[in-house]
Design a protein that fits this description.
The chain is of the alpha/beta class. The chain has 13 helices and 8 strands.
């Protein structure tokens, strides 16, 4: 009995030791397997994060290179605009008027444009339209509408853009449209513009009639976002002009601030489209053609401002609005209201404008944080800026802007007008808050 018991006990201990050994082996296998799995997971995550960082670095490098290329092309553009010669149009009478002296020769315009890739088309009323297709946002348009003095500038600008396209493989981000009105001083382009196209237009720039006058100062009445782009172009052109040339064209860069009757309070266009009407206006209505040689520096600087404005509006990945010009103009307009009965509403407008400016700067900070200019967020932000400009215009049933400072200058000030202006600005605050 003792031997049997000893044998069974020994067998039992042997089985227990073997079981423990197997369990330890399995434990070690599972442990090292878990470590291997964890290591693989961490290594994969590290590799994925590194790949993502490398991708972001490549995007950042590409974005930086694109910005550098854009800056280089902008400098090239300004140089080409500075060297532009208008003699070929002035001397050869390429744009000779018809016999009645009230219409441009649209056939000459079409002939000049047919040598480019702008594909000119003639409307029933002989308005000529040509466009440079957009590469990424072809459904967004930057329009230059011209007649009179503006025709020569538009043709030369089209030639410069065509040269950039051929020499530097450049294409605008958004479509650039050139529209040549048949009648001198009349904007037939807006009349021919289909209603569905209004929401496509980022900016509608006009140069009509005797828009370039000797010793004139630069004016740009229009919607606030487009005007800020124009004034930024003015500042850039001013910074690039030599001291000697700046002295000879100094009045261009006054923006007519010292002559509000002629400059600051010119009326906006009756339109719901973001726009600016560009001109060099003098005290006397003297066309630039009356003194061609002495007016050349003015035409050239004016030409650079127009070209750079169109370049930036059509080429910038993300649109911006600097509200300081808006704030300046509203304050200047309100100062002209001296009736004590409007003190309260003036204070409300001033307070609302202050809110708009602060929220606009916050919007610009959000825009600057966008890392991918081709992303959906960038497109949404651009649409917000476009909508903002339309809300700032605040057109009535007749498309007249309710927020036009020219209304105050023209003496059209009453309680209803100021209340409408206040309501429009409150809507702007709401748009900025929701954006």
């Amino acid at each position: 009995m003792h031997r049997v018991l000893s044998f069974q006990m020994g067998r039992g201990f042997g089985e227990s030791s073997e079981f423990v050994t197997k369990r330890m082996c399995f434990s070690f296998i599972f442990f090292f397997g878990f470590l291997a799995l964890l290591g693989g997971f961490l290594l994969g995550r590290f590799s994925a994060e590194r790949t993502e960082k490398l991708r972001e670095q490549r995007k950042q490098i590409e974005y930086t290179e694109n910005r550098m290329e854009s800056v280089r092309l902008e400098r090239t553009l300004l140089e080409e605009l500075r060297k532009a010669s208008f003699d070929q149009y002035h001397v050869t009478k390429t744009l000779a008027k018809d016999a009645n002296e009230d219409h441009i020769n649209h056939e000459s315009v079409e002939t000049t444009l047919s040598n480019s890739h702008l594909f000119p088309n003639s409307m029933p009323d002989k308005t000529v339209v040509a466009s440079l297709p957009g590469l990424r946002e072809s459904d967004r348009w930057v329009v230059l509408s011209v007649s009179g003095d503006g025709v020569i500038l538009a043709l030369e600008l089209a030639r410069v853009f065509e040269k950039l396209r051929d020499a530097h493989n450049w294409n605008p981000r958004r479509r650039i449209v050139f529209c040549f009105s048949n009648e001198f001083g009349r904007d037939s382009c807006r009349d021919n513009l289909p209603k569905y196209a209004h929401h496509k237009i980022v900016a509608y720039l006009t140069v009509h009639g005797n828009a370039i006058q000797k010793n004139g100062c630069f004016v740009a009445p229009g919607s606030d976002v487009v005007r800020s782009s124009v004034f930024e172009a003015v500042q850039t052109v001013q910074d690039t002009i030599s001291a000697q040339d700046l002295t000879s064209t100094r009045r261009i860069f006054n923006w007519c601030q010292k002559e509000p009757d002629d400059g600051l309070f010119l009326p906006r266009l009756p339109s719901d489209i973001p726009h600016a009407s560009l001109a060099l206006l003098a005290a006397t209505n003297t066309s630039v053609n009356a003194d061609y040689e002495t007016a050349t520096p003015y035409r050239r600087s004016f030409f650079q401002i127009i070209g750079l404005t169109i370049w930036r509006l059509s080429n910038s990945p993300i649109l911006h609005w600097d509200p300081k010009y808006f704030e300046r103009d509203v304050k200047a307009a309100l100062k002209m209201i001296d009736s004590p009965g409007f003190v309260q509403v003036k204070e409300k407008i001033t307070s609302t404008v202050h809110k708009i400016v602060n929220r606009a700067y916050n919007l610009n900070r959000n825009i600057n944080e966008i890392e991918e200019p081709d992303s959906l967020s960038a497109r949404v932000m651009n649409d917000l800026v476009m909508d903002l400009d339309r809300v700032l215009l605040c057109p009535d049933g007749n498309l007249a802007s309710k927020t036009d400072p020219a209304l105050i200058k023209r003496g059209l000030v009453d309680s209803e007008m100021l209340d409408d202006m206040l309501n429009c600005y409150e809507n702007v605050v709401q748009v900025l808050q929701e954006g």
